[in-house]
Amino acid sequence: MATDRRKMIVEAAGKSFSMFGYKATTMDQVAKLAGVGKGTIYTFFKNKEELFEEIVSSLLKEMKAEAEAVIQPELPFAENVHRALYRLLEFRSHHQLMIKLIQEEKEMGTLAVSEMLQHIESEIIAYLKEKMKAAIAKGAIPAFDPEITSFLLFKMYIALVFDWEKNHEPLSSERIAEIMKALLLKGLSQ
Amino acid sequence: MATDRRKMIVEAAGKSFSMFGYKATTMDQVAKLAGVGKGTIYTFFKNKEELFEEIVSSLLKEMKAEAEAVIQPELPFAENVHRALYRLLEFRSHHQLMIKLIQEEKEMGTLAVSEMLQHIESEIIAYLKEKMKAAIAKGAIPAFDPEITSFLLFKMYIALVFDWEKNHEPLSSERIAEIMKALLLKGLSQ
DNA sequence: AATTGACCAAAAAACTAAAATGGTCAATAA
DNA sequence: TTATTGACCATTTTAGTTTTTTGGTCAATT
Question: Which residues of A touch B147 (CB under 8 A)?
Fold first, then answer.
């Protein structure tokens, strides 16, 4: 059945991109892994890049769903950041792809990957920005520029998750979520 | 006179590294620009990498001096961050070299440059960490882990100065300093 | 004693040939 | 008739080779 084949392809591509990155994933490989002929892939996806987009956008959808599942509007903003972050960090499969893509961008500079990371970044920031605007409207947080603040929130997250462990022992999910909550809650005042 | 020659070399190298980066700066070029024979460079510096180190460490020294000049221990911590940051940001010459190095690391991955950026990062973070420890000891800021906090402070700074302008209009020095001060002062609470 | 630049080994760049890959489509299977 | 396939091809990537450039030395010169 057509739907089954499509699912097989998406699954195979997802695994392959996560394991080998974009460049090192070949269409022949994906076809073999999915157990279909190479041509079949092209009945569902215009080209490799569109297949990649499918994988990434479903990842983003999943991440959004995960976040929504734990956010409770009546809780303090910082608490929700903590909950969403912690939940997200527990999904190692999400991370596997992100790690691979970040690595590939750094050491090979693959254009399609750079563009996709850029896209992921702007999606996440846009999401944060909306949450933040709502919180400001409710008077729950001070009215800083939400564009800049969500940008910074995202960069802090990336720094803690991906940069910190270049020179230190990795931080646990709990620790990361805790740090961001503490900083956001009180800043460094008093 | 020997001192004069050395100064000429350092000046020439500084300009060249800032304009062309590490890789694209040749020793012949530096010699010509400094108006000395190439061999003369090697009477002052063991090799290209040591010349590079001289440039960078004098940059770091300057930056430290600039910061010290405006920091006033009796002011609030966030206010001092604001002052130091603003002062630093006004020195475009410092930045020219940093910009070039960050760019070179990204698009050519020159090893010597990566190592140097790593070194610069750890120097700045160590400096921040000391300041932070002192502030904690005085009870001026909460006792978060200074290693992590100074790491985050640095990453925020880099994000605002170098990453923000990839997709937005650059922020003014005043704005950047203001944002960091506001966030550090109050966080996103209330 | 200090300085230099021709010189050299080693590294990088340019070039070329060979292999791999994305995408197509006539043949095949369902 | 429709969905699927994999041999095939143009293009890109990689591997191998040659040429050029560059960091560093040191005998000659100032």
Answer: 168
